[in-house]
Amino acid sequence: MQYGIAFAPLVPTLVLWGALAAIAVIAIVLLLGRSRGAWVRIAALALILLALSNPSFTREEREPLSSVAAVVVDKSPSQNFGTRAAEADQAKEQLVDRLKQLKGVEVRVVEAGQADGETDGTKLFGALTSALSDVPTDRVAGAFLITDGRVHDVPANAAALGFQAPVHALITGRSNERDRRIAIVAAPRFGIVGQNQTITYRLDDQGIIGERARVVVRRDGEVLNERSVASGQTVKVDVDIKHAGANIVEIEASPVDNELTTVNNRAVVSIDGVRDKLRVLLVSGEPHSGERTWRNLLKSDASVDLVHFTILRPPEKQDGTPINELSLIAFPTRELFQQKINEFQLIIFDRYARQGVLPIAYFDNIARYVRNGGAVLVSAGPDYASTTSIWRTPLDSLLPAEPVGVTEKPYTAQLSDAGKRHPVTRALEGSNSEPPKWSRFFRTIDTRNATTPPLMTGADNMPLLLLSHYGEGRVALLLSDHIWLWARGYEGGGPHLDLLRRMSHWLMKQPDLDEEALRLRVEGKDLQVIRQTMADNVPPVTVTSPSGQTRQLTLAPSDPGIWRTTLPADELGLWAASDGTLKALINVGPVNPKEFSEVTSTAETLKPLALATGGDARRIADGGSVELPRIVPVQSATLFRGDGWLGVRMRDASVVRGVGVLPVFTGLIGLLLLLGAFAATWLREGR
């Protein structure tokens, strides 16, 4: 019960102030003039003024409100190291039990910092603000943070908290923890294929003095560099960009004894390889209708540097024309096929037959070029089945089929079962119908003894497109010279651009077109595991999260040749996947996630803020078992900590449940007061 006085003036406030001024003047005059009954008259005037103010006695029925204490439990990935998670659970249970024993204290528990694949670092104060968002500041008793101390949203000062109550940090973990990590200082996102890019990294050791680590640098699983590195040393390493697409560079440091975790001993950098210029050599054996199709395709690609020669005058053609009257450019065979052959990423023979232009020794050079990683595409016409076929050269060892003749009849090209799975031919526009919505071809080069299954078939189900591997290089054989009909739009044409471009990029080892590949890809909040294969089934894939947790996943078929599954990308950092043969890596979020940058527990991060609020930051399990200080209610103080105890601020907040009002000058009481005042004045004047 609370009592008080309230005023509800019967006249405007300005009138009351004017009346008060007039009464003051009258009082001064009466007192200075020593008038009889001056004090009685002043009292009577004051009662009139009080009556105009309309005072009332009030009685409030109030219900006290509880003080609210928040308990924020850190559930970030770093809490999974050692016994921190168990310590946090024990501390929460004990703390909540002790707070509930305090009369008038409401406890709110919130778990924060869970990995979601988006938030970088541990955000506890944001969760604290949300938990107290509906609580008036005069009801907040304090906050307890159960954490390893690695919090990344600590307010700059106590005023930024939005309430005046103690903040206490209960620190899990040990003071003597040791950890080692690799920190990426600088790394490029892109690199020119064939050139070096520099990555700068640093070895960071916490709780470790005077020890060195063996650091291994790998690119796509291949060891590039291995060296001994001292703690705190910054190292630069050059990485050769071998291919287009993602070049995955791993930097891994050897573990140290009694290390907290080895998760952050490895860092990964993905460098996208881009080709400055793709050098392509196109050799046309003779002018024909399809020659321009190849030239237009390659010239339209700004990334392709095309060198094109057409054999117009073979050596056997002798018509007596003087050499000085010929406007033809001599074919620089020695320069192209001996001196500069390795500068080309792809060599295309378009309806080329042996005409004495290239000596046999140069075909040996071409075979060696492919075996060492080059690429050859043969677009065959009747020349391939002739006695002057390039099959009858040292190229027979790398070409995937032997010619036996030519079939001249119309047909619609079909995708084979292998072609429906291969990235080069899969889902070509028009291939979903039967027959495909493509214009017909009218010639097929018959072959036998194919070394690989055809991706496309022609007349009488004979192979039309063959792709094969030879040593480190790749070979493509297109067994018809009528693809120009698709380019000209004959009978509606066909997907010649997609087919020829994919085929060329596969030959030049574009990773997206590999037949066997394991890939990781982030789609929104999900991580997709994708397996490209030509096989009928795939083995399970083991996925390792940044915190070191592993799970085995079974992939399901989606498109032909594609198997996939998804899982939540709920952690920032390096994810790895392996099926025992292939391996894939992807970094979710920043290169150096805050959650794993410093993982040793500490009280120093939260101590300045805790002390500024009157609270404290203390370890709770440094001796092995969880030991919480006593929780003490404190009514009014600026210090909420002491030897063996922590305090909460007890509030006096309440809510009004009922109000009683008794006007002073209403009714008989007011009438008697006023009449008494005037009677006293009359009596004094009558003496």
UniProtKB/TrEMBL annotation:
Keywords: Membrane, Transmembrane, Transmembrane helix. This is Glutamine amidotransferase domain-containing protein. The chain crosses the membrane at residues 6-32, 39-57, 660-683. It comes from Rhodopseudomonas palustris (strain HaA2). The lineage of its organism: Bacteria, Pseudomonadati, Pseudomonadota, Alphaproteobacteria, Hyphomicrobiales. PANTHER family: BLL2462 PROTEIN. The keyword Transferase does not apply.
